[in-house]
Write a structure and sequence with these properties.
Blueprint: H1 3-14, H2 17-55, H3 60-68, H4 78-102, H5 104-115, H6 127-148, H7 155-158, H8 161-179, H9 185-194, H10 196-209, H11 221-225, H12 227-264
């Protein structure tokens, strides 16, 4: 199965009501977490940022330049912008982990039942192993984000590095959970090795899809005035993006697993009936 065929099959999959029923758990969990933290920490976070900015000398020329460019209102928006920039990656990460742990396994089983009914579960890994893989991969992605922060000041790299890192994380996590129930450990390794390029391409596309909620903040300063509500809307969009990505990875990975097993199984040879004994 090609990446594009898996894309269209995933699109058809996520339009089914059953898929969105499984999405409710991660969606409600993420919305509740973001809502509680925004209610409890929004004002303290703004105060902390304002205190830090107050200690840092900012040239009056910078403020005059903003005023001359018609952006004087952004002086008061500095603290909300900083808080949002720091909060959005955490919301994205929480959405990805919630979908991977709560929805991706059910989506993979649904795809297997609909597209590959003969596909049997072989030594599927349990919740503990899935958690260990997810936590380890997430820590590696966070380390990469921290180490690459200075490079984000270079405009071209700022548009490449974050989607690349988030895409790598999505490919590793969602690709693993797509195979966790049905594939044995050696089968998971062979599928990932055999379709490494396709999985990387899908991960990169997922990383750029995850940037779509950032368009919510392009409406102007009103987005930062109502930032807690926009964070909730961003969280909902993140969950939807990763639900689609989970279906996309499940379509490709399970099709590759089915093809792998079909190649490994010996062909059935219809032997002639035995000759009668005289």
């Amino acid at each position: 199965m090609s990446v594009f065929e898996a894309f269209w099959r995933a699109l058809a999959t996520v339009l089914q009501p059953r898929i969105w029923a499984w999405t409710l758990a991660p969606l409600l969990l993420v919305l509740a977490g973001v809502g509680v933290l925004a209610w409890a920490l929004w004002e303290p976070s703004l105060d902390a940022v304002r205190a830090v900015v107050g200690r840092v000398e900012v040239s009056d020329g910078v403020w005059r330049w903003l005023h001359g460019a018609g952006l004087a209102q952004w002086r008061s928006m500095l603290a909300p912008v900083v808080v949002v920039v720091l909060a959005l990656p955490l919301v994205l990460l929480a959405s990805l982990l919630a979908v991977a742990l709560l929805a991706a396994p059910a989506i993979a089983r649904h795809v297997a039942a609909r597209r590959h009914p003969p596909l049997l579960a072989r030594e599927g890994c349990g919740l503990g192993r899935r958690l260990l893989w997810t936590v380890g991969t997430t820590l590696a992605a966070l380390l990469a984000l921290v180490l690459s922060l200075p490079l984000w000041l270079v405009p071209p790299l700022a548009l490449v590095l974050p989607p690349l890192i988030w895409g790598w994380l999505a490919a590793r996590v969602l690709g693993y959970h797509a195979l966790a129930h049905h594939a044995a450990p050696d089968e998971r390794r062979r599928v990932r090795r055999g379709r490494r390029g396709s999985l990387w391409l899908m991960g990169l596309a997922t990383g750029y899809l995850a940037l779509l909620p950032a368009l919510l903040w392009s409406v102007g300063s009103i987005a930062f005035v109502l930032a807690p509500f926009f964070l909730l809307a961003s969280a909902a969009l993140f969950v939807m993006v990763f639900v689609f990505a989970a279906a996309w990875f499940a379509q490709l990975a399970l099709a590759e697993l089915a093809a792998l097993r079909e190649q490994a199984s010996p062909p059935f040879i219809d032997s002639p009936p035995p000759e009668p004994v005289p």
